[in-house]
Amino acid sequence: MAPSSLEVRPVHSRADEKQFATFPWQVYKDDPNWVPPLLSMQYEVFDPRKNPFWEHSRCERFIAWRDDRPVGTIAAIVNENHNRTHHDRIGFFGFFEVMPDEEAAHALFQAAGDWLCAQGMDTIRGPANPSVNDEYGMLVEGFDRPPVVMMTYNPPYYVEFTEGFGFQKAMDLWAYYIDASAYLRPDGSIEVPRKLQRVVDAVKRSGKFRIRKLEKRRWREEVNRIKYIYNTAWEKNWGAVAMTDAEIEHLAKGLLQIVDPDLVFLVETSQGDPVGLSLTLPDVNQALHRAYPRPGVPEFWTLLRFFWHYKVRPKVDGCRVLILGVLEPYRGRGVDALMYYETIQEALRKGYTWAEMSWILETNEMMNRAIRFLGGKVYKTYRIYEKPL
To answer: Where are the domains of the chain?
Structure first.
């Protein structure tokens, strides 16, 4: 038999866009841990009319073909806000999916690298889908469980293909598992570690800070406060890029459908100045997994199944601590302990038995130490790779 031909081509037509969006269903069709996305969200990511990320970024998408059969996808992304923030010329790859075909994987990396080089970039980093403020990193350890909300997932062979092309680790991101039921006593009461309780009691007695839940009726004002804390508290983190006003609005609009105000805490000074933020999301991936979106099935029916599993007959027993941060002048004063404490209390009252805290930079010693103190164990590792162009 003649060997099949391999070709990598940019996405140009509507048919190409559909192929790019639906290709993951071919890769994961036999994988019980994959959580399929809603197709409408796949399309929205790349729609400049709907996603404000493209106001300051640009990309080229590629599909690898063997004869007339798609075998892989990748996006090459230039995030100008990242490069302005960090004073470098890094381009990103993302939306990397490929069949067990190493030649195709390397051809996709080459195409993405060539395009980024032509854009003036000197390094390629990823995966970013499409940025650090979205789904980020490649799963390298912990393939035995489905991903939680807004976290990535991939087959183990992606790691081999990526490193085989010459990519090296830039940073590891850790996901911690916490058995929240360990805080429950036989009589149903909640008992946290004594040291945590002492710190929380001292902070409350001081009267310097107050903690409250998100108020949906003041949504616009709350979003502005969250935006300020988010962009300020994380500005010195490795790879961090502040979100624009439009990006925050876009993210908030999406989260509004799933956020539980009882699991979002804001800490303020006694004068009302913002201090810290903790945002925990129900793991709606559990409901989405059961609804199982797929091409060809009207999304209306998928959403009905999703809300059945999420609201009518809820089977969501886990949550993800997505954000927990304190403004630098207030660190080391027990503010983080206050948010941990209230989150544990509220999550258990609502019936959540476990939580993932993710993702945490491997170099963030203060946060890693605090989570381990709470009983967290690293159960998934995600990796950011990079390679000189």
So the answer is: 6-173, 177-380
User: Cα(385)–Cα(382) distance, rounded to whole angstroms?
Assistant: 10
The CATH number that domain 6-173 falls under is 3.40.630.30
- The DSSP secondary-structure symbol of 310 reads I
- Rounded CA gap, 359 and 323, in Å? 9
Could you state, in chain order, the average pLDDT of each consecutive group of 10 residues for the chain (389 residues)? 81 97 97 96 96 98 96 98 97 98 98 98 98 97 97 98 98 97 90 94 95 91 93 92 94 89 96 96 96 93 93 88 95 96 95 96 96 96 98
CATH architecture of the domain covering 177-380: 3-Layer(aba) Sandwich (3.40)
| pTM flag (> 0.90) | yes
b/e sequence 326-362, b meaning 16+ C-beta within 10 Å: bbeebeebbbbbbbbbbbbebbbeeebebbbbbbbbb
Q: Which residue carries 């809300």 as its tokens?
A: 307
